[in-house]
Design goal:
single chain, 324 residues, alpha/beta, 6-stranded parallel beta sheet, 6-stranded mixed beta sheet, 45% helix, elongated
């Protein structure tokens, strides 16, 4: 998909580890529904970092699909790629009916994915690792192209006059985050784009480092964060630094939607994490029950699309339910 197509589609879009799922399974409205009889076990293994609320939506979607399909859903996570690979091996050892995996670092995780496939366990991948997923043997991948999303963000910021952009990375070594900033750099051709590395597990560190960068360079006119909670930190930093920089971000949560409504954040890129979690589980159920696959040999795109002042009210109610 070209960057212009991404932007066009965006404009047309809606105007810590745990061995099991934590919250009660819910449907898209947030109401608990009657769960089907459990007939299979699926384990989800992600790179969620402690305290990252983005994953609440992933899990909510996965749990809704599991409840509908009669799946014993189990969830494990670790932001360290080597430890995540170990969790995948532990999942393989349990011989489940399927494993759903995120891949922020194919060098560390790829072999574990291949082992699952070699063991005869169907694998879906989602959220991170799209370029490598099908080659590793996954039956499907559900997510956005991070490069295309970054390209669209860079073009949007440049179109609003950005000349000096700060791209804030909250976890070093994760390929999808680097791809986002790479895309921003390409999309904002002619503008200066500087990477700023912060500790995404410490909101104070995020705010302090962004504020310091804005204080040091008064010409920064746009801050791009790669997660909703970090955009909220950036908003605080902009205010504390007395900066006029705008804030844009990848991903959403209820608080972020409110920030767009009050104009402290200009836009968010929505990759529909609820849908990613839902499809990662539902696709495995369909494959086991009926041999179905989705995507026709291609990744299934769940984004990107922009949420901004033009369409924020259309998604606000869903965000309040914890599904957008």
């Amino acid at each position: 998909m070209t960057a212009s197509a991404v932007v066009a589609s965006a404009t047309l879009a809606l105007a810590a580890c745990s061995s099991s799922g934590g919250k009660s399974a819910t449907d898209a409205s947030g109401d608990t529904g009657a769960a089907a009889e459990k007939t299979m076990t699926i384990i989800m293994v992600t790179h969620q970092a402690p305290g990252d609320t983005f994953w609440d939506r992933i899990r909510k979607g996965a749990e809704a699909a599991a409840a509908k399909d009669g799946v014993d859903f189990q969830y494990t996570n670790d932001p360290d790629a080597t430890k995540q690979a170990q969790l995948i091996q532990a999942a393989i050892d349990k011989k489940p009916d399927g494993i759903a995996i995120t891949d922020p670092n194919t060098g560390a995780i790829g072999d574990a994915v291949k082992k699952a496939v070699a063991a005869g366990i169907p694998v879906t991948m989602f959220n991170a690792g799209g370029p490598d997923a099908l080659g590793l043997g996954a039956i499907g991948y559900f997510g956005q192209s991070e490069s295309d999303a970054g390209l669209a963000v860079g073009q949007k910021a440049a179109g609003e006059g950005a000349k000096n952009i700060l791209c804030v990375i909250q976890e070093q070594g994760q390929s999808q985050l680097e791809a986002r900033c790479d895309g921003v750099t390409k999309g904002a051709a002619g503008a200066k784009v500087t990477r700023l590395f912060v500790n995404g597990r410490d909101d104070a560190d995020v705010t302090t480092k962004i504020q310091a960068a804005l204080t040091q360079d008064k010409s920064v006119d746009y801050v791009i964060t790669l997660g909703a909670q970090f955009a909220l930190d950036a908003g605080k930093a902009v205010k504390a630094a007395g900066s006029s920089a705008k804030v844009g971000t990848f991903d959403t949560n209820e608080e972020l939607i409110k920030a767009i409504q009050d104009k402290s954040v200009t836009f968010a890129v929505d990759q529909q994490p609820y849908l990613q979690g839902y499809l990662a589980i539902d696709a495995l159920w369909l494959y086991k029950k009926n041999g179905n696959t989705l995507g026709g040999g291609q990744n299934v795109a769940t984004g990107p699309a922009f949420i901004d002042a033009s369409n924020v009210e259309a998604v606000a109610g869903f965000a309040a339910n914890g599904t957008r």
